[in-house]
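As the next step, I selected for study one protein, both as residues and as discrete backbone shape codes, as given directly below:
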Amino acid sequence: MKFFNRGLYALILTIFFQTQLVAEYLYKDEVVKRPAFTEQVEKLGSELYAKTGISLRLLMLKKLPEGMNMIEYEKKVLEEFNEPTILLTFAELDTEIDIYVSDKSLYEYFDRRQVLSPSASAVQAFIMAVVHANSWEMFNDLRTNYGGSILPLLGGKAKDEQVVGKYAASMFNGYIDMSHQISTKKGVVLENDPGDTNQETLFYVKVFFYGFILYAIVMYIRRVLYRRRHKNEQK
């Protein structure tokens, strides 16, 4: 009986520590829950930490805890770690994404503004500036803010059964981008860094965006020509 108890305790401890290992860099996942997603984050995150000493943790939340905003929650989570830690946090129902660090010096290893930019390209940023800016300062700010690796993908339309996949793709794309920037700043190469895959993904986002703009221009021209032709026919 004692032997059985020891064996049972050992099994429980083994399972517990294996779970902790799996959840080390995909620190919380209440949204995707797919083994392949977890595996990819863990491979990249563990290599990044081994080679740079910086822990990049991804949190996929359904909703922020009641009564807590994003910053309060991230500060609470960071209390659990001693090593230099960067949190990339997504809260689905709160529609919030944020990046927060255990020490401000960690911001020098990646461009937070660029990663969280809503624009994938300079052209898209310029158009957003023209549409949304209400001052010259705001125009310049929006115009120079592009290269986003999360929001351009996250903002894309998806069918109900594809939404979780969109969340996984967009957040992992941001995770790859940040890992690449950190490793580059540290002067190391990551074997699990997809490298150009990140840029290829953004390339297709840009193609889609430019295609949409071109389509809108063509439809506008056709509408103008139709109105002129219809006006001439009435005369």
Remarks:
- The two ends are 101 Å apart (CA to CA).
